[in-house]
Amino acid sequence: MAARGCGGVWRRALQRGPGGSCSASRPRRAVACNARGGAVPVGQSGLAPWVPVVGLEIHAQITSNSKLFSGSQVQFAAPPNSLVSFFDASLPGTLPVLNRRCVEAAVMTGLALNCTINKKSLFDRKHYFYADLPAGYQITQQRVPIAVNGSLSYSLCIDNKMSQMVTKTVRIKQIQLEQDSGKSLHDDARSQTLVDLNRAGVGLMEVVMEPDMCCGEEAAAAVRELQLILQTLGSSQAIMAEGQLRVDANVSVHHPGEPYGVRTEVKNINSIRFLTKAVDYEIQRQIKELENGGTVVNETRAFDSKLGCTVPMRDKEGKQDYRFMPEPNLPPLILYDAKSLPANVNHQQVVNIDWIHERLPDLPSVKRAKLVELYGILPEHSFTLVNEDGLMEFFEDVVKRTQMKPKKVIGWILSDLLSHLKQHSLTANESPISSFLLADLLNLLENGDISSSAAKQVMAIKEGNKKVINKLIGLVRKATRGRANPLLVKQILEKKLSE
Amino acid sequence: MESLGVAAKWRRPGVRCGAGTGREDGRSGVRRRGVGRHAARFSAPAALKEGQITPTELCQRCLALVRSTQFLNAYITVAEETALKQAEESEKRYQRGQPLGELDGIPIAVKDNFNTAGIETTCASNMLKGYISPYNATVVQKLLDQGAVLLGKTNLDEFAMGSGSTDGVFGPVRNPWSYSRQYKEKSIPRSDSEPENSNWVIAGGSSGGSAAAVSAFTCFAALGSDTGGSTRNPAAHCGVVGLKPTYGLISRHGLIPLVNSMDVPGILTRCVDDAAVVLGSLAGHDPKDSTTVQDIFQPFALPTLTDVSKLSIGIPKEYHVPGLSSEILAVWSKAADLFKNAGAKVVEVSLPHTHYSIVCYHVLCTAEVASNMARFDGLEYGHRSDMSKSTESMYAATRREGFSDVVRGRILSGNYFLLKQNYEDYFVKAQKVRRLIANDFVKVFGSGIDILLTPITLSDAIPYVEFIKEDNRTRSTQDDILTQAANMAGLPAVNVPTALSERGLPIGLQFIGRSFQEKQLLTVAKWFEKQVQFPMIQLEEVKKHDDGVLQHQKSASFS
């Protein structure tokens, strides 16, 4: 029982020592959670078990040509302060004008996450002084956000076995539209701060997930699913490395039957892998703290990816009172549906929820179901196809061009191609073996022209393993009963393989 | 129409009706004859169109007057060079016979809290001293697009926080009436030892510079801003028309905000018709201001009312506030009688939540001020302190050095009201009360009242030395009491100069109209203006510089 669900994660983490170089190795903790998220007594240590609770706040940068409230362009890695309007620099007298595209992106995302879309939502000002927040406040949706009460289903495998997948659901508390801040670069040597306002005012969707998760792996799986949904919708590119998807994790631990513990917020997590690490580290840190008679402080911590641990963020010390206030320069955001849409209204001026709903693309879950149904592949294989960048398209391209049954094709793709791609951190789009080539190869195999081992060797060569060519020459000589000139065979093979 | 029997009572000796006819050359065709022939004509264009004066000449005369009335401190910045250039452009258009409209070549002034590209915009604050905006406020752009000549930027209370135009870093504005023959004749020097000019009275505020600029004939129209009465109050004290349009009718883009939910660009002119012309050139949806209404605005010419018998004028009893001078009360009731005698229905009405308005205003105003002022951190623009110990200490020093006590006081109280523990008790309650106040007006107008008639100030303008005996907060509380409810409800309201006080100073009355019913409001105001025949200011400086062109047509309805 203890081996189920996240239990395995804890064990691995513990064996490695979650602190990495930050802390000495830790004793085993009586911690576990099962697939349903409940606490599970570990037993052997005799200590009361801990239940970790993880909630997420995710900021997704909206894919749009211009910013949320100004006409400035949105572009990653542009020269500093080259995409700054008067409003973005908060010049006195400038006013926000809401970008319709950002509203549509948020509605789309809300619908995809099964939210109730608020027909009337409001904007608020959240005040704090920071160098990269030129107005001294951020415009956000604190009181009435654009979407509320949704849910996200995600799946993860147990004990790292693809064959044992469980599906879980996390509740979505709300999605709010808000402005991104600029970026500050601190030059400690010269004790100065450089401010880049290119990002200031870019539209964000903040997706607030309820604390329904209990370990890093669950959090990671939920975020990955959200990322796929956003990318499918086109509402955000959701590339974590480029800061288009930023995840803050709220972590606490408590004993079963007791109220939630004091939580910490972990920031600076910029990949899904680090999310798993950061959350698991933080859970372990809190447990250790508490078991040693200490307390968990309500604080903001940053994940240090080099050290693999979380550290308190000094500039976030002290409680902030954000002095929320309604944004007086923006009227309430009114959305319509087919029923409420007023007659003779300019369609450019309004956002129609039903219209957007009808045009939602297939979400990842639907795509997976369709793959299973259409190609007869296993559900867990459909996960891999959809979750890996470009792999589904690759698979479908191959299937289209080969007589081999999809069920067999998937084996080639998942066991041979994917493992190679992963080894070299490549996506399917960057694969050295194109879908055409793989299809040709599989056709030859299917027609009995080549053996399965020959096909594997061709793949190995295409993947960059030149040594295997000798094996192929051997196969040709065998097939021609030694009549072929080995040098010529080699030349021809090399030519063919480099095509 | 011939209710002049009543109106005649308003006339005072020395009223110069249609005074200063032609120029010295004797050409007197400048004046437009025939009352109500063409209501909304701006006063000066006739002379411009007929070539009696060129835009450049007109601009030069105004600039000369700006210089000779410098002691009024009405202007912070005089943009002589660009004004003359604009006048030159205008002149070319007139020569081609293609002026851009009623405002082409008309010298105007703009309160120094509107952004003007290339001309300093200071808000009378150390924080923005030397600040040159890269863009024009929408209203400024609209005026320029119609050929108006921007003479300069007018003085105000720092960030428009005040009711006297006494609390800016460039010093107080002096009310031109302090130097009028009318006032000088009536005022008794307080003692022989006092310098002659210690009796000067305040211009009112916070748009005191704009009101003084129009009152002293340095320009034909000026922009003010009105958050709690900042256009109407100085208009009343300086004897000019001051219009606060409906919230959402005119763009606020480029107006440096005091209270976003109440700020409206205000219009100061010498007569109601001129206010209608300026309104027509400014009103309408602005894609840069999401709070402007989408409806297309049709500029209008004001009809000349001859029959007011279908009008229903409301006299809100709650405006009979403690502290209202008997003189103002008398003028107010005379005005009511004027309407009654002319056949209008004059009804006492109740706006029961008026009493709570000023405290409620205080909470909402300071809260928004606290928020709006947060951007002044010394990083992107404006004053920056030399303090460089840390970013936080730089912020603190910048704001301490850049803002006056008045501004900082409002920021502090606003932040207090917005604290999590206070928000419900203050801000949310104030918003609810605001709704009640707005509903009061809805009910009254729903009951068939067309226009409300109220006083606008508690008394005529008081001497500066008296005014500064009380602090800004006390003064603002007293002075906004009759004006800010219109801002809370977003309604259009206008000051119409009505009479001179015993001391020879202007007294104005306020008309409040229904939302977006500016035409009705101004039509009634114009009728009233005509009845009361408010006297023209008699200023030595104006006489010296004017041979009739500047003040020959105080009001189109006079001609």
Automatic annotation (TrEMBL), chain B:
Location of the protein in the cell: Mitochondrion
Catalytic activity, EC: 6.3.5.7
Keyword Hydrolase: no
Gene Ontology molecular function: any one: glutaminyl-tRNA synthase (glutamine-hydrolyzing) activity
Any single GO BP term: mitochondrial translation
Active-site residues annotated for this sequence: 111 (charge relay system), 206 (charge relay system), 230 (acyl-ester intermediate)
UniProt xrefs under InterPro entries: Amidase, Amidase_dom, AS_sf, GatA
Recorded catalytic activity of this chain's protein: L-glutamyl-tRNA(Gln) + L-glutamine + ATP + H2O = L-glutaminyl-tRNA(Gln) + L-glutamate + ADP + phosphate + H(+)
Domain (Amidase) ranges: 68-181, 196-522
Gene Ontology CC annotation, any one: mitochondrion
A Pfam entry, by short name: Amidase
Keyword annotations: ATP-binding, Ligase, Mitochondrion, Nucleotide-binding, Protein biosynthesis
Keyword Mitochondrion: yes
Primary location group: mitochondrion
Function: Allows the formation of correctly charged Gln-tRNA(Gln) through the transamidation of misacylated Glu-tRNA(Gln) in the mitochondria. The reaction takes place in the presence of glutamine and ATP through an activated gamma-phospho-Glu-tRNA(Gln).
Entry similarity comment: Belongs to the amidase family. GatA subfamily.
Assembly information from the UniProt record: Subunit of the heterotrimeric GatCAB amidotransferase (AdT) complex, composed of A (QRSL1), B (GATB) and C (GATC) subunits.
Protein's name according to its UniProt entry: Glutamyl-tRNA(Gln) amidotransferase subunit A, mitochondrial
Species the sequence originates in: Gallus gallus
